[in-house]
Amino acid sequence: RGLLALLFPLRYSFTYVPILPAQLLEVLSTPTPFIIGVNAAFQAETQELLDVIIADLDGGTVTVPECVHVPPLPEPLQSQTHSVLSMVLDPELELADLAFPPPSTNASSLKMQDKELRAVFLRLFAQLLQGYRWCLHMVRIHPEPVIRFHKAAFLGQRGLVEDDFLMKVLEGMAFAGFVSERGVPYRATDLFDELVAHEVARMRADENHPQRVLRHVRELAEQLYKNENPYPAVAMHKVQRPGEASHLRRAPRPFPRLDDGMVQWIVDQATAKMQGAPPAVKAERRTTVPSGPPMTAILERSSGLHGNSARRLEVVRNCISYVFEGKMLEAKKLLPAVLRALKGRAARRCLTQELHLHVQQNRAVLDHQQFDFVVRMMNCCLQDCTSLDEHGIAAALLPLVTAFCRKLSPGVTQFAYSCVQEHVVWSTPQFWEAMFYGDVQTHIRALYLEPAEDRDHVQVGDVSVPEDERSALDVASEQRRLWPTLSREKQQELVQKEESTVFSQAIHYANRMSYLLLPLDSSRSRLLRERAGLGDLESASNSLVTNSMAGSVAESYDTESGFEDAETCDVAGAVVRFINRFVDKVCTESGVTSDHLKGLHVMVPDIVQMHIETLEAVHRESKRLPPIQKPKLLRPRLLPGEECVLDG
Question: TM spans, by residue (predicted)?
Fold first, then answer.
């Protein structure tokens, strides 16, 4: 029970048995995770378990089998937690080596020490999960909230992409329950919510001050104790014990007979009085859950260490300006430096921002040289993107690759997406799901935002927030508060609007996925597929996306048998299956009706086929493009007595 208490705010969702009877010891061999208490008399029975961690409460030891890898906490959290636990459990040990120790302080009682231990782990989880609300996607608000967590963005912004411990925490069922329970924007808040929202700066400032950390732990322990004991101890009425000679006294008078009508009248009077009185237990007050400081502010200390210098960012901006101004010679001089700078995250983000500005200025139609430069820089950006896209570079480039284009011939246009397909991120279902949920959240938020002329500020909690600055969670909180006051017709109207929003985004993403999954030359990719097989397509040109059908899809949410891809070797069929699986998952999680889902399954093959027909014309015209002429050096006029040694 102590271990379960230390997991707060997470909830253990697997098998939990406080004391296992002797007749059920074979349960310890089950392959599912469990927390089971076993009597010390049966310790010999647990020695043969190979994949079970054993904690001996009597001896104070923990035995971890060699085949089990327990990832450590990320630093500096592990060392800080170890130090605080030492101060709580043995405060005198911290002062033992001091030449002039301070006056000894009174040790905490066992009850308060129990709360201090819980406070240490509560503080640990607050540090570990701080900023999590900024990575929540509000997919639906009505009739019930549907919330998804953007794991890749959280890991990337925290700088813990390669941390095994946090990765396992985020992938566990306990964290999924945490998101569904605590992601709700309008609910009763508790100590953990206040800690994540308002104590982040204090915990960061106290990192190098052990005594301040201990003081904070004791403050949290005091609040935990008050939560567990909300009312002061009430003196109980004690019945006096009769004396030894009490039996010698005169017999007491018999208890009088009670009048049934009088008793019922007294009960009715008391019941009526209690109905009008306030409840003895204070009702939970629901409110907007505060999100806390943004993730960028949390990581402001470490982000500057890996950022590019201002000079490199200026080079990127200058090169893009030269490209769009037609100064190709100047852009060509800067291109090697730009490609080197794009190894850094800040330069990649700068590139996406500059390209977005040119799209907004209606400068997306490029000539052949400009198109080649832009595509080359995009490919360099995507080259270092992992399948998770934890820094959001691929997400920022996705609308750009469908915007920049060049005219091949009258009526035939080639977009940039046909030249940036050979990257693993496009074949990752998790990337598409996160992008879909993010865009749905944007449209759901816009659905409920009122026009600026009608309402400039909205009250969120105790703060007045401008309408345009309200987050999706703030909008959802207000809508959940107003939901019980709406008429049934209005409620049904809002539900239908939200479902239409999700449905339209599913169609939009079916088109987007077909853009980036269908290769420019589908016939050549089909031949490669037949010759090389499913496993050898990674090395084939323009065919990485077809291999993703057997690789990434097999690891997706609802993967089917792998024999399906082996039966039909056409690229279109593989892409249709990939998109259908994506549509099935996101629409089921978003509460889309079965009729809309069936309609999507009918539309997806038509979308893919139409795009294939478009690509055939693009591929045919792209083969007719003349090679870009290199600039020729003019032969200089020779002065009298000069002669040309080498021809340029």
Answer: none
Q: Is residue 153 part of a domain?
A: yes
Q: How confident is the model at residue 432 (pLDDT cuts 50, 70, 90)?
A: very high
- Regarding whether 612 and 490 lie in a shared domain, the answer is yes
366: DSSP letter: E
Encoded tokens for 427: 């074949």
Q: Rg of the chain over CA atoms, in angstroms? A: 33
- The whole-number pLDDT of residue 440 equals 92
Q: Please report whether residue 634 resides in a domain.
A: no
Q: Are residues 361 and 444 in the same domain?
A: no
39 and 120 inside one domain? no
Assess whether 482 and 438 both reside in one domain. Answer: yes
> 443: which DSSP letter?
H
pLDDT of residue 551: 32
Q: Is 468 part of any domain?
A: yes
The b-or-e profile of 490-506 (16+ CB within 10 A means b, else e) is eeeebbeebbebbbebb
Distance CA 554, CA 501 (A): 29
- pLDDT value at 564 more than 60: no
579 in the same domain as 431: yes
User: Are 493 and 398 within one domain?
Assistant: no
| Alpha-carbon span 571 to 608, nearest angstrom | 10
Containing structural domain, residue 182: 77-96+107-228
What total of structural domains would you count in the chain? 4
Enumerate residues 6+ apart whose C-beta is below 8 A from 157: 131, 135, 295, 296, 298, 299
Distance CA 178, CA 9 (A): 7
Residue 539 sits at φ, ψ, to 5 deg, of -85, -5
Tell me which of 228, 245, 273 is where a domain ends.
228
Question: Beta-carbon neighbour count of residue 124 at 10 Å?
Answer: 18
User: Rounded to two decimals, what is the model's pTM?
Assistant: 0.75
CA distance 588 to 140: 12
Q: Which long-range contacts (CB under 8 A, 24 or more apart) does 469-475 make?
A: 470/445, 471/291, 471/445, 472/137, 472/138, 472/441, 472/442, 472/444, 472/445, 473/133, 473/136, 473/138, 473/185, 473/288, 473/289, 473/291, 474/185, 474/288, 475/138, 475/141, 475/444, 475/445, 475/448, 475/449
| Sign of the C-alpha dihedral computed for residues 397, 403, 407 and 408 taken in this order | positive
Please tell me the predicted confidence (pLDDT) of residue 547.
Answer: 31
Handedness of CA 74, 77, 79, 84 (dihedral sign): negative
Give the tokens for residue 493: 């109207």
Q: In terms of domains, do 617 and 476 share one?
A: yes
Cα dihedral sign for 276, 281, 285, 286? negative
Could you say which of 228, 247, 280 is where a domain stops?
Answer: 228
Scanning 404-487, the segments in alpha helix (DSSP H) are 429-448, 472-482
CA distance 214 to 220: 10
Supply the CATH number for residue 57's domain.
3.40.50.11500
**Each residue of 15-29: pLDDT tens digit?**
888 888 888 888 888
- Specify the pairing of strand 186-188 against strand 286-288: antiparallel
